[in-house]
């Protein structure tokens, strides 16, 4: 097996058996599985601390089957509006308990909440029974820190933070590693296999529960290299993010414990929209919340039907710090999760040889047109382990790498900011929670022009920020184009006009 070389001067190379890009639960799981099988693993991440990964922000928890796998299988399919791939659901369900116990409980010792008789399983929207393992309403924070620490101490894993991947190294349909950047220096890392675990696309929208770094890098790099993508139209919006400055997610688990949504008139409205009321699938709740915000001016979450401070102390503290009353937490929809991404099989293999993708950047088929709550962490864990195992056994091979030019003057300080502003405005106005064919056509045309403008600068300049902007433009265009062709179901809601029963896109 080859070993990872230390970070040194610019234009160096680091050879490794497996290159993992991203340090959320999917990337960490892939790195762990590959290292367990004897491979040397080089894990790189743009993040400088666990807080910069989307996994860290996960609140509700991670679903398991308990003793009812068929029930979870049914719930995943129903939440997807019957569009999820049954074979992918089988992979998720059949591996759920073993993966969670092996990695999270036995290896990492995650202190999931108990009730005196065992685990305190929670309930969330569209789940037919309590099956969510959680730690308060900050499960991701309690999970990712120990996971990263475990890998830092693993003899076969080398982790480099604050390190971006600019592009994949490809030759005749095979991926041989990637070009990396840190502190303005670039170099090539050659790998037997490369696993993308770069997360979602929240930075494409003005309001998101994702970190600012979620610019869709992995999806863009894979697409530019020729890999197939799928289901890009299905962007899920979480219905209950705090609708104020310094927004934060108000976990679905709060509604699972009995919190109710009220409009500005004080009326509870969800029973009028769906028999499951606040626990209807996310796409339905999100559109209902937006409609009531448009109609009455505000929607709030009333958490007084439960012991909010006792059950969710972290969220209660956030509300208290901001002076938000527990009986009227202002909420609104916020971009949350991409159900599509790089097309992969049941082992995370993409359509390019030796390239794998896991986590939110991958389209496994599990979520279809709408994701069931608390299956995101589970999907990242299950597919991360499977991809990590499948990626072992290839030898790193050097190839002729492309020359990155940095010959022109630096960009004006406002260039990146202005382009992102334009991109986010188009996505918010035209490719948001509710869409029209006309808006989608306008978005595709505008984004195509914007991408062309950005590409002109990428040809002669090399910087992390510019490549992130290019990634965002590539992925935004993929979303808009797919939304013009995709079946309007689940979280891809299309109406003929701006208004449909007072539900608006903006």
From TrEMBL:
InterPro entries: FAD-dep_OxRdtase_2_FAD-bd (IPR003953), FAD/NAD-bd_sf (IPR036188), Fum_R/Succ_DH_flav-like_C_sf (IPR037099), NadB (IPR005288), Succ_DH/fumarate_Rdtase_cat_sf (IPR027477). Pathway: Cofactor biosynthesis; NAD(+) biosynthesis; iminoaspartate from L-aspartate (oxidase route): step 1/1. Its EC number is 1.4.3.16. One of its GO terms (molecular function) is L-aspartate oxidase activity. Keywords: FAD, Flavoprotein, Oxidoreductase, Pyridine nucleotide biosynthesis. One of its GO terms (biological process) is NAD+ biosynthetic process. Residues 17-377 form the FAD-dependent oxidoreductase 2 FAD-binding domain. Its cofactor is FAD. SUPFAM superfamilies: FAD/NAD(P)-binding domain, Succinate dehydrogenase/fumarate reductase flavoprotein C-terminal domain, Succinate dehydrogenase/fumarate reductase flavoprotein, catalytic domain. Belongs to the FAD-dependent oxidoreductase 2 family. NadB subfamily. This is L-aspartate oxidase.
